[in-house]
Amino acid sequence: MPDWFKNSLQAFKNPSYVQSAVTLLLFFASWGIWWSFFQLWLTSPDHGLNLSGSAVGTIFSVNSLVTLVFMFGYGAIQDRLLLKRTLLIFCASITSLIGPFFVWIYAPLLKHHFTLGIVVGAFVLSAGYLAAAGIFEAVTERFSRQFNFEYGSARAWGSLGYAIVALLAGFLFAINPHLNFWLGSFFGILLLLNLIFWRPKAEKTLGAQLQNHDHASDSPSLQEMLGLLKLKELWVIIIFIMFTWTFYTVYDQQMFPEFYTDLFSSREKGQRIYGSLNSLQVFLEALMMCLVPLIMRKIGVRNTLLIGIVIMAIRIGLSGFFINPIIVSFIKLLHAFEVPLFILPMFRYFTLHFVTKLSATLYMIGFHVAAQVGQVILSTPLGILRDEIGYSQTFLVIAIVVILAGFFAFFSLKKDDEDVHGDPFIRS
């Protein structure tokens, strides 16, 4: 039996790992059941709102702008809460209400009061999902260090949850998109109950110790948080993220779903196949989440991240050259390899080169906030560019930008043994 499989089985004996895994599974299930078809819902004339590319770009831009504000607050609040779940429970409360919000508030507002709908939707989606995703991941990473389990393995359960619902999402969307939104609420309620009532013994014990302990030295001050913005190393990462992950996110979320479904004889057929393919992709992603920590131990954090950038550029670039649905389906599956090879080493890069007590703030600012700033700036212009020159040419432009950012990363990102201010990384 392989060592990685033995380690995976051993992890289930750790209650903190199991609870964290279930939390991520339910959060990403609540998100993925509707988010995987959000762009199609906005643009579809039959099952959605029939919005233009520029209108969709505006929605994504405003979502990103509001998410940006929430992320600054979420990261700072959670670093002071340490292991407390207060913020997670707040986010889960919003996810539990996503069904009635979409059906009775968001859709009518976008149809009849577009500007107001954009603003209201941005606040709800950002608070419950777009900003919350980073804080759920950051808290799980902190738990992994406190309670001795592998973060990547726990994060894989989030991908698994997304994959399971993605398998259903396409079929439900073709019947009635409202089903997707109501199931989002169902998983959100389960998530909320899980966070309120399930606290492993080790977490309770450590939480009690922290309450009785003056943890001022463990909890970062406001001055320390603001001081992060003076770090040249953080700005290098922000620039890198804006020209890689941001462009990739616009490509993958704002453009690719409609591009793919339009390759088929009917939108309904494309939507069903897209849902099934999306599920397969995320299953593979969950497997890679378990394998990437092993890859990092062999070749290092920086090298793993660079491989992720190469795969990112290849996927975007190939999408600009092919319109055969079979070939494009295989191209889409590259996402399953690219995302774990990018996200996990990026998180480890923060805990390696920066102090760990600021990990949540660093991850939110350096990764998620940087990506959202990029989306605020780029979503609408890229949406207009797509309207003018089409998907294929737009994909090639995005691929060129990512390639250039890859060269920037090669010369700018620190090696694993340089400026180690956090948890040292040792290859095995």
Q: What does this protein structure show overall?
A:
- The mean pLDDT is 85.
- The radius of gyration is 21 Å and the shape is globular.
- It contains 20 helices and no strands.
- Helix content is 81%, strand content 0%.
- The protein is mainly alpha-helical and 428 residues long.
- The chain has one domain (15-412): Up-down Bundle (Growth Hormone, Chain: A), CATH 1.20.1250.
- The protein starts with a helix and ends in a 16-residue tail after the last helix.
- It is a multi-pass membrane protein.
- This is MFS transporter.
Number of helices: 20
Major sheet size, sense and barrel closure: none
User: Spans with pLDDT under 50 lasting ≥5 residues?
Assistant: none
What distance separates the N and C termini? Answer: 19 Å
Based on secondary structure, the structural category is: mainly alpha
Shape: globular
The CATH architecture: Up-down Bundle
Could you state the order of secondary-structure elements as H and E?
HHHHHHHHHHHHHHHHHHHH
Query: Do you know the CATH topology?
Result: Growth Hormone, Chain: A
Radius of gyration: 21 Å
Instruction: Report the portion of residues in β strands.
Output: under 5%
CATH class: Mainly Alpha
Helical content class:
over 70%
